[in-house]
Each structure stands twice: as C-alpha cells, then as structure tokens.
Amino acid sequence: MEFGRFLITASFLGAFMLVVSAETVKPPAHHRDGIFSLGDKNNDSILSLPECTQVWSTFDVDSDDMISKIEFLFRWRFSNLNDAKHAPLFFRLIDVDFDGSISKSEIEKLCKFFDDDEDGRISMFEYDLTWEGLFNFIRTDSDLL
C-alpha cells in the first residue's frame, strides 16, 4: 500500500517537473532558420503535419516518392541548411528501414515523432527539443571551433 502511494507521488512529481521544465527550458535553435522555416509557409511558428511532410518531400528531387541519399545530400547542401557535414548521418537516422532511401511513410513517421503532444501540430519548441535530442549527440569539440 505504501509503495503504491510512493509510485503515485513519484509519478506526479515527475510529470510536474516535466511540465515546469518544458515551460522554462529553451533549447538551442541553430536549425530554426532551416527545415522549420522552409516548412512554416504561413509563418505561424507551427508546423502542421502536412507542412512537415511537404517540406521533407521537397528533398525528393526526381518526384519518384523516394528520397535517395544523393537527393537528400544535394537538397541539404543546395538549401544551405546547417550541419551539412552531418547530413549523411541525418539521412541514415531518417531511413529507419535501412533500404537506402526515405519513403513517404518514413517522412510521416518522422513528422509524427516531432509532434510530442500528438495534437497534429509541431510547435517550434517541440521541433527544437526533438531535433536536439536526435542530433545533438553528434556534436564534437571541433564543431565548436
């Protein structure tokens, strides 16, 4: 009985701390002028799931509904997006089925992954936090120089 109360209290405190930290923590937004800005066509600082899907779909240069690694790297560099030297790793992380291309379903899954509260909209905060969680680990000291 006591252990059950402890778990409930611990869960409540954990959730409370998560909400408080989500409101106060502002992750770095080094990429905000990149993918997010390309997708946010109406400039409301929110990416709808269709906007997210559309911006990633622009990487499909030959319009065959598959994004090859060459297309991905070409579009990344052509768009002057940040972290160009890490673009091959970004491609690899998005290509979850390891088939060497990114499909529409992988793009949809990626966009849903960014939508933390599952409301069909990706706030700038959700995007920043998820981006940092996915890609911050690859930064090295040489990136800071």
TrEMBL record:
> Is this entry keyworded Signal?
yes
Q: Which domain of life is it from?
A: Eukaryota
Which first-to-last residue range defines the signal peptide?
A: 1-22
PROSITE patterns, alphabetized: EF_HAND_2
Keyword Signal among record annotations: yes
Give me the segments passing through the membrane: none
Which InterPro entries would you find in this protein's record? EF-hand-dom_pair, EF_hand_dom
**UniProt entry keywords in alphabetical sequence:** Signal
- Where is the EF-hand domain positioned along the sequence? 82-117
Output this protein's name.
Uncharacterized protein LOC106012025
- Native source organism of the sequence: Aplysia californica (California sea hare)
